[in-house]
Amino acid sequence: MLEIKDIVFSVPDLDAPEKGAQKTIIDGVSYTFEQGKFYAITGPNGSGKTTLAKLIMGIYDVTSGSIFLERKDITQLGITERARAGIAYSFQHPARFKGTTFRDLLSIAAGTEDEDKLAKIVARVGICSLDFLDKPVDSRLSGGEIKKVELATTIARNPRVAIYDEPDTGIDLWTIDPMVRLLKREQETQGTTTIVVSHNRAFLSAADTLLLIKGGRIAYAGDLDGAAELLKDLSACGYGDICEGESDVRCHR
Ligand SMILES: Nc1ncnc2c1ncn2[C@@H]1O[C@H](COP(=O)(O)OP(=O)(O)O)[C@@H](O)[C@H]1O
Ligand SMILES: [Mg+2]
Fold first, then answer.
1. Which of 32, 98, 121, 136 has the most CB atoms at less than 10 Å from its CB?
2. 163-200, pLDDT tens digit by residue?
3. How far is the CA of 50 from the centre of ligand 2 (A)?
């Protein structure tokens, strides 16, 4: 069980005319993620989804509020300690490392260099061909490939809580369903609490619970059917979006 209690994240507001002004990005969020359940987090661009995920992983420190894993207060723990406690995070835009192969990253994540064990993980995440292990994780990997590497290293850690930030970014349409099934299978067979930030219907439908984040707050938590009206609002064309047909260039969010 992962509990977040009244967490707030504020940063200096560099756009504000007055000095010392703060911008609140996460505005008092409380929620309990049950062990072994599948959650989808969705919401407009800039609503705070990635920030919330990074606060849980400890990539950002909360301004106030608390985070508990299995009732233990982990608010003061750094990323490494939270990783050791069983939380894993898969970046929306994973880093690329010159001179590093998928095998290197997978070995670190799995804590083994044993060929059979690595092969088992490659098979488990459904990556076709063991040769992929020797792919350099550098700028030559495609957007889809780097996301698969990121996903595989997250799964290889056997986390209690796995957070995936927009795992479908850069992924071709026909890879999304196998990816949803993979995360579902991991949730069901390993009992992983799975939190996926996504706009994709396939992930939203796969989730036990959908969280809708708006303006740094939870606007809705429940099943997908109950969110139908709110999701319709989301698909309305907003500031900076590409609208259906010709846009009203004077529209505001
Ligand atoms: N470290 C930061 N410093 C200042 N502003 C930030 C920081 N991180 C995120 N933001 C801002 O907070 C808002 C929410 O960002 P983010 O969590 O990335 O949104 P989402 O993932 O929902 O698209 C955005 O306006 C973003 O520019
Ligand atoms: Mg984001």
1. 121
2. 999 998 888 888 889 999 999 999 999 999 999 999 99
3. 4
User: What integer pLDDT is reported at residue 238 of this predicted model?
Assistant: 66
- Tell me which residue has its CA closest to atom 2 in ligand 1: 11
Scan for tokens 């000095």, then name that residue.
19
Report the nearest atom of ligand 1 relative to the CA of 51: 17
Q: Which ligand is nearest to the CA of 93?
A: 2
Q: What is the pLDDT of residues 62-84, one digit of tens each?
A: 999 999 999 999 999 999 999 99
pLDDT tens readout for residues 98-111: 889 999 999 999 99
Domains of the chain: 2-234 (3.40.50.300)
d(CA 108, ligand 1 centre) in Å? 30
**Ligand 1 pocket, residue 215 CB under 6 Å:** no
Which residue's entry shows tokens 């026909």?
174
Show the tokens assigned to 89. 């995070």
Cα separation, 42 vs 218, whole angstroms: 10
